Amino acid sequence: MSAPATPARVAYPPARRAPTHPVRQATSRTGYVLTVLAFLLPSAIPLVAFVLAPMVAALWISFNKWNLLAPMTFIGFGNFAKLLADPTTGDVFLHTIYYIVGYLPLVFVGGLVLALALNTALKGRSLLRGIYFLPVVTSWIVVALVWRWLLSPGSGVVNTVLGFVGITGPGWWTDPVWAMPSIILASAWKDLGFVMVILLAGLQAISPDMYDAAKMDGAGWWRRLFSITIPLLSPSTFFVLVISLINGFQVFDQVYAMTGGGPNGASEVVVQQIYDLTFRYGRAGEASALSWMLFVVILAVTVLQVRGQRRWVTYG
Fold it and tell me: Which residue range is the domain that position 211 belongs to?
């Protein structure tokens, strides 16, 4: 008995998609763009009005000589050349770098210690987290005045305590040598809570299983810290370093409130110089040029950090 014949397959032409009408496609794309813009406008309008527009205006002013009252006089790169030839410009940048070099390790190590301590099963840790974060939301003027009083050479609390143990306290913010360390101490104390919160969030994202496996292999606390905690905390560390460096280059409030840039210009930083050039000396063109010089420095440092993160930041 022969097998039944297999029916021949009918070849159908491939299905064709209905052509999209160009007008409909353009309308759909326009609608998508308008929808995106509608959601971005509440943020984009303030960004353009209070950030981008002032930056462009400052760039234009930097090419002019202007005292805020008389009409501008275009002088090209004259303001930049004058600033580069002025030794004060180098001094304020050096003072700013001095501040960053002292502030950054202090605030990071202090914030890491607090984060490690508050990441344990400590009684009242929620209350302690709030207490340590409180200075972050406190006005800089209030913090600066409190620290100015604490570090007062004559009757300050710090020098009084040092006197009890036989140590003669320094002049702090009245001494050219100790003026910048005074600002660094106040800044680190205020920002410890911010660094603590960021690093604490990073610590809580690390799986406890990794620590358990390391304990089973005989790894001690220090080994777990340097082999697990610090490498896996690198994304949070990177964020803290970027933000702290940007804020460090723009330091102003504490300097203005505690020392005013003194004594004898020992603590004058870049933003303080920009303020003085604008409102004390009426040299808005030079101030705008200096602000753009600072922007270029911050941008270059940030780009270097972003490119360098591939070598030491561990994600996942």
Answer: 80-312
Q: How many Cβ atoms from other residues are within 10 Å of residue 247's Cβ?
A: 16
Burial per residue of 89-105, b for 16 or more beta-carbon CB atoms within 10 angstroms, e otherwise: beebbebbebbbebbbe
Domain assignment of residue 220, yes or no: yes
Residue among 241, 292, 285 nearest 271 (CA): 292
- Of the candidates 199, 201, 223, which has an alpha carbon nearest to the alpha carbon of residue 210? 223
Residue 182 sits in the same domain as residue 36? no
Q: Are residues 51 and 105 in the same domain?
A: no
Same domain, 147 and 206: yes
Dump pLDDT digits (tens) for 151-194.
998 888 999 998 888 888 888 998 999 999 999 999 999 999 99
- Residue 65 forms beta bridges with which residues? 73
pLDDT digits (tens, 9 = 90+) for 238-260: 999 999 999 999 999 999 999 98
Cβ–Cβ < 8 Å for 162, 112: no
